[in-house]
Structure formats: structure tokens, C-alpha cells
Write a structure and sequence with these properties.
Blueprint (H helix, E strand, L loop, with lengths): L1 H21 L10 E11 L5 E13 L4 E14 L2 E15 L10 E14 L9 E13 L4 E12 L6 E12 L4 E10 L4 E10 L3
Antiparallel strand pairs: 1-2, 1-10, 2-3, 3-4, 4-5, 5-6, 6-7, 7-8, 8-9, 9-10
Length: about 210
Amino acid sequence: MILYMKFYLPIIILSLSLFSSLAYSKSRLGDYYLGFGYTNASGKKALELEGDFLNFSANNPASDSTDFLLQFNYGNVDSNGGDNTSWDIALDYIYHYDEYVFQNGMFRPFAGIGVSYLDDGAKIRLAEDGFTWKLLAGTEILFTEDFSMSLGGNFVGLWSDLNKNDFIVNVGLTWWVNEIHGVSLEYNHALDQEVNFIGFKYLYSWI
């Protein structure tokens, strides 16, 4: 019995220490931050295309368990020799389930809704321009106090024609250098449009 205690006690202490540190991990859910980034887009469902986007985001907690996320993207897309612009502005309302596994635990599932306006001359995202809707869900995984991964998906479509929609898979890695500065590497894949988005973002958090 004593031998088992000697073997398992360090593991138990290490586990409790890990989960205790995760409870105070820096997260992109429930925090104030600004994001400034660059995204490269590529794909060839109908036409081969290559695009470069600049993006801005601002996350503002609405309560202990909800956030508002504002995003703006603007870019140029080269498609078979033609050059077109594409931009959108979006606002998401996100609910995060902080107590799903542990108090502010390692897994932080989230779900939300969003609206946006899309002006996409390159047709890189949807077949038409206009106001769009969004349903989103996923989870943030807090590996350490500073490093996390986000896995999720967005179902987006046009308000004017519900048949024009797409599902986008999201994967992101975030590293907070300290309480204020962070960086993020993000990958999105639009299943119907068959377009890949790979982006890098600088994050600034003031609280």
C-alpha cells in the first residue's frame, strides 16, 4: 500500500498542479484583445486563385461567459489573371462553457451566432455578395498557461438565399508571450468553395 502511495502521490500532485495552472491560463475567450494579421488564400474549385488579406479583430467580453467578436478582412485575389477585391465585416456573439470539465478547465467549448456583410468580387467565399449569417461551435484546449489550440467550425450562408452556404473548418494555435502580447497561427478550410486560408496574427491584450 505504501509503495503504491509513493508511486501515485507525485502523479496526483503533478495533475493537480497542472489543472490549477490551467484555471488561470491566458485564453482568447473571456479576454479583451485586439488582433492584427495577414492571411493567404488559395484554392481551385472552379478557377485557380491566390489571395492576400489583411485582417483586424477585437474581442470584448459581454459577461463572464459571453463575448462579442468584431472582425474585418480586406484583400486582393488573383484568379486566372483577373484581380478582384474581397472584404467583409462581421460581428459574432459567443458563449463559452467554462465549467464543462473543470473550473475554467483545460477544455473550453463554445458556440455562437454571427452576422456580417460580404463584398466578394472574387467569389472566394460565397457565390453572391450581401448580408450573411453564421452558426459556430468548437472548443479551446489550454495545454499550458500560455499555449492553446482552438478547434471548430462555422456554417455560413446568405440571408437572401439560404441555399448559398458553406461550412468552414477552423484550427488555430495561440501562444501568449506574456499577459499583453501574443501570436496566433490559424488555418481555415471552406469545404464547398475548396479554399484554404492560412494566417498569422499578432494579439494585443490590455487586461
